[in-house]
Design goal:
about 550 residues; alpha/beta; Rossmann fold; 4 domains; 5-stranded parallel sheet; two-stranded antiparallel ribbon; 24 helices; 11 strands
Length: about 550
């Protein structure tokens, strides 16, 4: 006999379970509220269990009892469907599919963590055959489900990605302070959309279109954040071979722009063809070309890019196309761009050093890393916790736990007793400075911070001070030439003024250029000669 699919109490439970299932697991307030709501339905959660934040490798409190209720409810729904009932409208369909997702994913993934080591691809994949058996059991209800539930291998890949991402974020972003917990929640949303139910059916192969920009002081772990995002990608699963189509690691390509010569950055990013410039003896792939679908390019220190390269990066983000240096055929970019900087891009834009349109393309997904001082102000206990993590890294795999505890304790005591440090020390170098502190204590038994002059806001823009981060006149000239952003007259004026600045007099400049001195004199601009006379001498 046909009738409503859900009874009133079951409909209420299914709605609350769907809300709990699809929320960001790192958004503590929402997670606690959803768990408390489920707890009122006679599931036996204590107050302590309700307030406990999610912890890796431990089943979330009471979830086993919740899942048992989900499985029992699915059994009753199967009987109603066989009697003629069916989901009425999108909301009922959404609740039914949330119940199926919860039953399948928690049975085969919760408590069987697929990742054990941070960022190196070490993993344990649950049995696909056991998953397939349970998947067919819960999806064989007798009513039509969305396409996602007709593709078990795809569903397996999505569920695995969800749990693997959860573990990667926990492994790579450590600490218990509220700023760190908020950071983990931001990272999760850089991987999965707010409406998580849309991910498996519509967005799993489209999230790479969203560029992520990571902002924060130097030494706050921006590359770790980028690694967590880049490695937590969707990878298709091959049901016939019972394996993923790609290795879980190796799809993250970090590029430190500040460590590369300016004239090589463009070639490194986009590649070049043979003969494009002196030394280009053969074709070369750039990072954008090596980045396949689902892979990520991490552009660290994005604020260092010349304007000419900024224009080309903007084209990549707008059209997903790029050109090798010296080539006229466009190539497709299939991956995701993650960028980071410790610069104030607002000030860089105001100073004319960074393009505003590029900034708005980069910041569709914005993540901010907190300083170490912010973390310790909120949770002082994070200091010994973080010091122990660093001590473990410094002493290596052969170290005994007692040896790690010894180094960690020695470092914490030094920090607390040192008049230069103390518990209120600002840690201007953030986590990177804390690492050096542990290493110094390990090697010398002490750590003394080196004073770093900090200029007041705006001073670095003063005309009277040197500007080490500004481009030289020659660099600006070469950037405009590469960007084909000069008229022929401007090019001649600049080059004649440069040769004159490097010559002893006008006659010598005319000799070098092979033209009459009057012709050269008409091309020389005093303001350009002044720029090149000091900055461009060999």
């Amino acid at each position: 006999m046909a009738g409503p699919l859900f009874e009133a109490i079951d409909a209420e439970f299914a709605a609350d379970f769907a809300k709990y299932l699809y929320l960001n697991p790192f958004e503590e307030e929402a997670s606690v509220a959803a768990r408390r709501r489920l707890a009122t339905m006679d599931l036996g959660l204590s107050d302590e269990e309700e307030r406990r934040p999610p912890v890796p490798d431990v089943q979330r409190p009471g979830i086993d009892r919740v899942v048992r209720r989900v499985e029992a409810l699915l059994g009753r729904l199967r009987e109603r469907i066989q009697a003629g009932a069916s989901p009425q409208g999108y909301e009922e369909q959404r609740r039914l599919e949330a119940l199926i997702t919860g039953a399948v994913s928690f049975r085969h993934f919760e408590g069987r963590r697929p990742i054990r080591e941070a960022g190196d691809g070490t993993h344990r994949v649950p049995s696909y055959r056991a998953f397939l058996e349970g998947f067919r059991e819960f999806t064989s209800l007798g009513c039509e489900l969305s396409e996602f539930f007709r593709k078990p291998a795809h569903a397996f890949a999505v569920y695995f990605q969800l749990f693997r991402s959860f573990d990667l974020i926990f492994e790579l972003v450590r600490g218990n302070s509220r700023p760190v917990r908020r950071l983990r929640a931001e990272i999760w949303h850089s991987i999965f959309p707010h409406e998580l139910q849309l991910y498996g059916s519509l967005l799993y192969d489209r999230m790479h279109d969203v560029t992520t920009l990571i902002l924060g002081p130097s030494g706050t772990g921006k590359e770790l954040v980028a690694t967590a995002i880049g490695l937590s990608r969707y990878i298709p699963f091959d049901a016939k071979r019972e394996r993923f189509t790609e290795p879980l690691a190796g799809a993250f390509h970090p590029v430190n722009l500040s460590a590369m010569p300016r004239d090589l950055i463009e070639s490194e990013m986009f590649g070049h063809c043979a003969g494009a410039f002196t030394g280009a003896v053969k074709d070369r792939e750039g990072w954008f070309e090596k980045c396949d679908l689902g892979h990520a390019v991490f552009l660290d220190e994005i604020g260092e890019l010349d304007e000419s390269v900024q224009v080309k990066l903007l084209r990549v983000l707008q059209s997903r196309e790029f050109y090798r240096v010296g080539e006229s055929e466009p190539r497709r970019f299939a991956g995701k761009v993650i960028a980071a900087t410790n610069r104030d891009l607002g000030r860089e834009i105001a100073a004319g050093r960074f393009r505003q349109d590029l900034f708005y393309r980069l910041c569709s997904d914005l993540v901010k890393t907190p300083s170490l001082r912010e973390q310790l102000d909120d949770c002082p206990d994070d200091l010994p916790f973080l010091v122990r993590l660093i001590a473990t890294k410094c002493l290596g795999e052969r170290a005994w736990p007692e040896q790690i505890d010894w180094l960690a304790g020695l470092t914490v005591r030094w920090i607390e007793s040192s008049p230069e440090l103390g518990t209120d020390y600002e840690w201007p170098g953030n986590f990177r400075e804390l690492e050096q502190c542990v290493r110094n204590v390990m090697v010398r038994g002490e750590y003394h911070p080196q004073p770093i002059p900090i200029l007041p806001t705006g001073v670095e823009d003063a005309v009277s001070l040197p500007k080490p981060n500004r481009r030289s006149p020659l660099e600006r000239l070469f950037a405009r030439i590469r960007a084909t952003d000069m008229t022929l007259d401007e090019l001649l004026e600049n080059y004649c003024s440069l040769v004159f600045a490097r010559s002893s007099h006008l006659t010598e400049a005319a000799r070098r250029l092979g033209k009459h001195r009057t012709t050269i004199q008409n091309r020389i601009k005093p303001e350009l000669v002044e720029q090149y006379s000091d900055a461009s001498r060999p």
